[in-house]
Amino acid sequence: MILPMTLNQGRHANNKCLYSLLPVILISVLLSCNAVEQKTFLQQVAVVPDTLQIDNAYDTLVTGAKGTKLFFEKSSFVLPDGSVPKGKVSIVLKECYGLADMMRENLSTTQNGQLLQTRGMVHVAAFAGEQELQLKKGKKFVIHFPKDTADRKQPMNLFYGQTGADGNINWQVDSATLLRPTAFLRNLMYTIWQECDSTWPETFSFKSKKDTSVFDYFYKHFDNTKLKAANDIINKTFDASFTLTKQGKITNIKVEEVVYDNKRNRQVLPTKPDPYFYEYISELPEIEPFWGMTRRSGAVPVEVGCNFHIEIGLYPPGYQDMESYRQAFYQKYTGSVDSTTTINSMNEAELNWYVFSASRLGWINCDYFWEAPGEKINYAVKVDPAAKPNVRLIFRQAKSIMAGTLEGDRYVFKEVPAGQDIKIVAISFKDSKPMLAISETRTGKQLFDQLKYKDFTIAELEKQLNVP
């Protein structure tokens, strides 16, 4: 039984206050940190989190200030000793969608040296009072990263952050949520049987699986591994038709790839659909036959034609099968209990969010691998090692940040794509005072030695980094 969902977008008042005063606080820190070390400085300028209260006894959907949505099933959290926490649980959420926020959190976007393009990074932690909680073994939670306006159809993956000895995060892909081609059934309908005087209002259902909708069964059991060329059918639409016999058997299957223009005019393409479509449709369980009404015989099962659309997209597995999430989502956003509406509404959610099923707390990243063209080089920036520099490369053609390593009097960035427009962002300390240098250049084999430092404020950092 699904317990009632609660929606809590409230935040502690002191967090609101801190957030509104953040520029003043940070400027004060920057102007008066004569004795701070770099680590302490980064802690002081870190992004202020939201604190979202939930009840561990209920399925709950919460939303962060920047649009991140988190869904937790009831009993998701336990104390380190495995016991159940009492009272409210605080979800502490940091959202980093802008480059300035990522710099303030000392983040970068690489996996084992390979560049990633990010659509956002968040840090999720849970507390009962002062005690930090863990996800209960076997539990997952659903995370929604809001999509920006650029490249909304780009397939993304989920990554978890691992902090190395140098303080930099190396992102590891969540293999359980690797994107896979997934087929969704659309507009399944009967063709009108001409010999009937009238028809019963019909819905598709299985003979032996009364509690399973045909729509649910289709996407849950579609085996993408059997597709001959999976990546060739992404974002394509297929029209399928078959005959449903009086006994509920499927015959005369036909599948065509189609495209529709803005006026919904249909064009059949001369491609040969993947043979797995035929195999899969033919192996669907027996469907309840169609009943027609005649004056002579009354209600009788009749043989009818059926047609529907198959739409193929790249989706991360996991969250669609979490029944509590699906129930909570359509109750919150549609108020409907119809399974067709459920699937449609979830697909509408995917237009606005990247949706994943996550198995870890901590730093979580929504990324894809950036296949930058051209030669890979080692790029170096000259620095004063005594000034405790922290240098990042920000690529203009991708939302990607790269960390380097200090080698003598230079920061070295390895396997960098050559000929890329970049911003070099460096924070160093002069007499224990933080200084900022931002330079625009292009990656090449020459040593860059033109960093010019000056006092800075967070507002200036935001302006420099978050404006294209």
- Average of pLDDT: 77
- Rg from C-alpha positions? 27 Å
Low-pLDDT windows of residues: 1-36, 334-345
Distance from N terminus to C terminus (CA atoms, Å) equals 49 Å
Overall geometric form: elongated
Query: What is the overall number of helices?
Result: 9
Strand content: 35-45%
Which percent bin holds the helix content? Answer: 10-25%
How does the helix and strand content classify structurally?
A: alpha+beta
Description:
The longest helix is centred in the C-terminal third of the chain and has 14 residues, at 339-352. The relative contact order is 0.16. It contains nine helices and 30 strands. It has helices spanning 13-20, 22-31, 38-44, 99-104, 214-221, 275-282, 323-333, 339-352, 458-466, and strands at residues 6-8, 50-55, 60-63, 69-72, 77-78, 88-96, 110-111, 114-128, 131-132, 134-135, 141-146, 157-163, 169-173, 180-190, 198-199, 237-244, 250-260, 266-268, 290-294, 298-302, 304-315, 353-358, 362-369, 376-382, 390-395, 400-403, 405-407, 410-417, 421-430, 433-442.
